[in-house]
Amino acid sequence: YAMLLSLIFLIVLVAAVVGFVFRHEIKTNFESNLNLALRDYNVTADRHSEAVDTIQRTLHCCGVQNYSDWERTEYFTQKGIPQSCCKSQDDCLEEDLKDPSKAKLKVFVDGCFFLVTSTMESKMSIVAGMSFSIACFQVI
Question: Signal peptide position in this chain (predicted)?
Protein backbone atom coordinates (compact mmCIF):
# COMPACT_ATOMS: atom_id res chain seq x y z
CA TYR A 1 0.00 0.00 0.00
CA ALA A 2 2.84 2.39 0.89
CA MET A 3 4.57 1.65 -2.41
CA LEU A 4 1.35 2.35 -4.34
CA LEU A 5 0.92 5.68 -2.56
CA SER A 6 4.57 6.51 -3.21
CA LEU A 7 4.10 5.73 -6.90
CA ILE A 8 1.02 7.98 -7.09
CA PHE A 9 2.93 10.73 -5.26
CA LEU A 10 5.80 10.47 -7.76
CA ILE A 11 3.41 10.55 -10.73
CA VAL A 12 1.75 13.72 -9.43
CA LEU A 13 5.13 15.29 -8.76
CA VAL A 14 6.49 14.41 -12.22
CA ALA A 15 3.31 15.67 -13.92
CA ALA A 16 3.61 19.01 -12.09
CA VAL A 17 7.29 19.41 -13.00
CA VAL A 18 6.72 18.44 -16.65
CA GLY A 19 3.76 20.86 -16.91
CA PHE A 20 5.87 23.68 -15.48
CA VAL A 21 8.96 22.95 -17.60
CA PHE A 22 7.10 22.48 -20.88
CA ARG A 23 4.47 25.21 -20.45
CA HIS A 24 5.87 27.23 -23.39
CA GLU A 25 5.69 24.21 -25.69
CA ILE A 26 2.14 23.58 -24.51
CA LYS A 27 1.21 27.18 -25.39
CA THR A 28 2.88 26.93 -28.80
CA ASN A 29 1.10 23.67 -29.59
CA PHE A 30 -2.22 25.08 -28.45
CA GLU A 31 -1.80 28.16 -30.63
CA SER A 32 -0.87 26.13 -33.72
CA ASN A 33 -3.78 23.73 -33.13
CA LEU A 34 -6.18 26.64 -32.70
CA ASN A 35 -4.91 28.12 -35.98
CA LEU A 36 -5.46 24.75 -37.69
CA ALA A 37 -8.97 24.52 -36.23
CA LEU A 38 -9.78 27.98 -37.62
CA ARG A 39 -8.36 27.08 -41.03
CA ASP A 40 -10.40 23.87 -41.21
CA TYR A 41 -13.51 25.33 -39.58
CA ASN A 42 -16.85 24.40 -41.09
CA VAL A 43 -20.47 24.21 -40.05
CA THR A 44 -20.76 20.41 -40.03
CA ALA A 45 -20.67 18.47 -36.78
CA ASP A 46 -16.87 18.46 -36.67
CA ARG A 47 -15.53 18.28 -33.11
CA HIS A 48 -12.78 20.84 -33.80
CA SER A 49 -15.33 23.33 -35.09
CA GLU A 50 -17.54 22.68 -32.07
CA ALA A 51 -14.56 23.26 -29.77
CA VAL A 52 -13.79 26.59 -31.48
CA ASP A 53 -17.44 27.65 -31.14
CA THR A 54 -17.53 26.64 -27.47
CA ILE A 55 -14.33 28.55 -26.67
CA GLN A 56 -15.54 31.66 -28.50
CA ARG A 57 -18.97 31.63 -26.82
CA THR A 58 -17.68 30.84 -23.33
CA LEU A 59 -14.73 33.24 -23.21
CA HIS A 60 -16.35 35.95 -25.38
CA CYS A 61 -13.49 35.98 -27.85
CA CYS A 62 -13.04 35.60 -31.60
CA GLY A 63 -10.15 34.15 -33.61
CA VAL A 64 -6.68 33.32 -32.32
CA GLN A 65 -5.12 36.76 -31.84
CA ASN A 66 -8.25 38.78 -32.76
CA TYR A 67 -11.37 38.62 -34.91
CA SER A 68 -9.47 39.46 -38.12
CA ASP A 69 -7.85 35.99 -38.06
CA TRP A 70 -11.08 34.72 -39.64
CA GLU A 71 -10.44 36.83 -42.77
CA ARG A 72 -7.69 34.39 -43.79
CA THR A 73 -9.96 31.34 -43.69
CA GLU A 74 -11.99 29.66 -46.40
CA TYR A 75 -15.07 29.83 -44.16
CA PHE A 76 -14.88 33.64 -44.17
CA THR A 77 -15.02 33.82 -47.96
CA GLN A 78 -18.23 31.78 -47.89
CA LYS A 79 -20.10 32.92 -44.79
CA GLY A 80 -18.02 35.53 -42.98
CA ILE A 81 -17.15 35.35 -39.30
CA PRO A 82 -18.95 32.53 -37.40
CA GLN A 83 -22.04 33.25 -35.30
CA SER A 84 -20.20 32.07 -32.18
CA CYS A 85 -18.21 35.33 -32.26
CA CYS A 86 -21.32 37.52 -32.02
CA LYS A 87 -21.90 39.65 -28.95
CA SER A 88 -25.65 39.32 -29.48
CA GLN A 89 -27.11 36.49 -31.56
CA ASP A 90 -30.19 38.62 -32.41
CA ASP A 91 -28.16 41.48 -33.87
CA CYS A 92 -25.74 39.43 -36.03
CA LEU A 93 -26.65 39.21 -39.70
CA GLU A 94 -24.64 37.19 -42.20
CA GLU A 95 -24.11 40.29 -44.38
CA ASP A 96 -22.55 42.12 -41.41
CA LEU A 97 -20.28 39.17 -40.63
CA LYS A 98 -18.91 39.19 -44.20
CA ASP A 99 -17.80 42.83 -43.90
CA PRO A 100 -14.89 43.18 -41.44
CA SER A 101 -15.59 46.84 -40.69
CA LYS A 102 -19.24 46.14 -39.77
CA ALA A 103 -18.33 42.89 -38.01
CA LYS A 104 -15.94 44.72 -35.68
CA LEU A 105 -18.92 46.37 -34.01
CA LYS A 106 -20.92 43.15 -33.68
CA VAL A 107 -18.36 40.52 -32.66
CA PHE A 108 -15.90 40.05 -29.83
CA VAL A 109 -12.64 41.64 -30.95
CA ASP A 110 -10.25 39.94 -28.51
CA GLY A 111 -8.50 36.75 -29.55
CA CYS A 112 -9.02 33.44 -27.78
CA PHE A 113 -5.37 32.40 -27.40
CA PHE A 114 -4.53 35.00 -24.75
CA LEU A 115 -7.80 34.45 -22.88
CA VAL A 116 -7.43 30.65 -22.80
CA THR A 117 -3.80 30.76 -21.65
CA SER A 118 -4.43 33.42 -19.02
CA THR A 119 -7.43 31.46 -17.71
CA MET A 120 -5.34 28.29 -17.52
CA GLU A 121 -2.49 30.10 -15.76
CA SER A 122 -4.84 31.69 -13.24
CA LYS A 123 -6.33 28.28 -12.38
CA MET A 124 -2.92 26.58 -12.33
CA SER A 125 -2.14 27.77 -8.80
CA ILE A 126 -5.37 26.20 -7.53
CA VAL A 127 -4.58 22.91 -9.26
CA ALA A 128 -0.99 22.95 -7.96
CA GLY A 129 -2.15 23.68 -4.41
CA MET A 130 -4.69 20.87 -4.47
CA SER A 131 -2.15 18.44 -5.92
CA PHE A 132 0.39 19.40 -3.26
CA SER A 133 -2.12 18.97 -0.42
CA ILE A 134 -3.24 15.56 -1.77
CA ALA A 135 0.40 14.50 -2.07
CA CYS A 136 1.13 15.64 1.51
CA PHE A 137 -1.94 13.79 2.77
CA GLN A 138 -0.72 10.65 1.02
CA VAL A 139 2.72 10.94 2.63
CA ILE A 140 1.17 11.35 6.10
Answer: 1-19
Helices (H), 1-140: 2-21, 23-39, 47-59, 74-79, 94-98, 100-106, 112-139
Q: Per-residue pLDDT tens for 8-62?
A: 888 878 877 787 788 788 888 989 998 888 888 885 667 888 888 899 999 999 9
Plot region of 128 (φ>0 → left; ψ -120 to 50 → alpha; else → beta): alpha
List the chain domain ranges.
1-139
For domain 1-139, the CATH architecture is Orthogonal Bundle (1.10)
pTM value surpassing 0.85: no
CB atoms within 10 A of CB 8: 13
